[in-house]
Amino acid sequence: MDNSSGVGVLDKAALVLSALESGPATLAGLVAATGLARPTAHRLAVALEHHRMVARDMQGRFILGPRLAELAAAAGEDRLLATAGPVLTHLRDVTGESAQLYRRQGDMRICVAAAERLSGLRDTVPVGSTLPMKAGSAAQILMAWEEPERLHRGLQGARFTATALSGVRRRGWAQSIGEREPGVASVSAPVRGPSNRVVASVSVSGPIERLTRHPGRMHAQAVIDAAARLTEALRRTG
Hints:
This is IclR family transcriptional regulator. GO terms for molecular function: DNA binding; DNA-binding transcription factor activity. Keywords: DNA-binding, Transcription, Transcription regulation. By secondary structure, this protein is of the alpha+beta class. It folds into 2 domains: about 10-75, Winged helix-like DNA-binding domain superfamily/Winged helix DNA-binding domain (Arc Repressor Mutant, subunit A, Orthogonal Bundle); about 80-235, Beta-Lactamase (2-Layer Sandwich). It contains 9 helices and 8 strands. The chain has helices at about 10-20, 25-35, 40-50, 65-95, 135-145, 150-155, 160-170, 210, 215-235; strands at about 55, 60-65, 100-105, 110-115, 130, 175, 185-190, 200-205. It has a 6-stranded antiparallel beta sheet with strand order 5-4-3-8-7-6. Strands 1-2 form a two-stranded antiparallel ribbon. Strand 7 and strand 8 form a beta hairpin.
């Protein structure tokens, strides 16, 4: 067998998963694609189904299971966090303001990475902080590209409107002035995963005295560039 690891059962399981990469397969289809004996193919497919690495479609054919997508998302998140440090540090150095990376988790957003301004007045958001999805430019970004029903629910009680989010989608960035916290302004842009879905928001934030009432004019391009670098890192394979 090519690509033999020396652990036969794993090699055969990998054959089954690879066979399903091209789409749904019946048991006969799996046997033909893998060259495994029918009882072996069946036993492995059912065992992989138990671990949610294989599932069945409406016709009862074998398909790749949800656990693989969960693992892929976790791997993507790790890659995002591995890349985020230098990108946020560069963004902080270019803008002179604190930089953050947020991911959505249910009805909250979590700061998963940050680069603090080194001195003077700064807007400190410690890594691990949970903030509401109802205010702030990062919340606007994480909400703007949601499907209509979730968007409608999320706008209830929000400090921003559907019209504002329409503008965010058109421009590709968001700004807020005193929306999340009095005296604080911020600018954010979307980070997209391989499927083009918005998976995170990269932001800079600081006092309105420095960022002015039009923070996007000062920092939108730098934030967009940082988001593009993170998006590119997620799209790179391997």
